[in-house]
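Entry for the shared binder. Reason: the reviewer on the internal report wants the predicted structure included alongside the sequence.
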Amino acid sequence: MFRDRLEAGRRLAEALIAYQGRQPLVLAVPRGAVPMAKVVADRLGGDLDVVLVRKIGAPFQPELALAAIDESGWIYRTPGLGDDPELADYITAEAAVQLAVIHRRRAQYTPQRPPREAGGRIVIVVDDGLATGATMITALHALRERQPARLVCAVPVAPAETLARIRPYADEVVCLATPAWFEAVGQFYADFAQVGDDEVVATLHAAEAAATAPHSETKETP
């Protein structure tokens, strides 16, 4: 369905073109969504940053999100999965591990500045796809606390039932495809190579340099 994340980002940017020129804050869920969000931010003339959340995967099945945690330590539990009382101790312990990862990434990704201000702005949260939606819901919950003017969830692909779960947390949900058969996000990309921390740091630094350079108001790409 998508050649790679960059193509998905271009197609997502076109679906979000109504926000072009309105200086949206485009926030990527690291790490995979960062290159895609950069494409979106450039196309819309917005600012790029990350929203740090982490999935709490199931024992022996780490890709299945039982829950997710945000930078403040707030935990979302996936209905029917993370609300099992027998998993409560596991989720608490794993949440501490993932929160440490979040703190480490904040220090690595944006060491010289705090997260960009979201209050009163159009905020677009980008991920490369949703499965359970736990990390996206956690990100949207965290951002709602920062009182954006409009909060948008933007993804290339997700199951319809996941989008239904997401909608109460966002003012708008933009999704390019909702396939009936869905096993994993990666199945919808010809190239779904892992994005490393070095690429995330380089992308964020390049975006910040462009934003602070003279004539940065012409960031929009044709």
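Summary line for the report: The longest helix spans residues 88-109.
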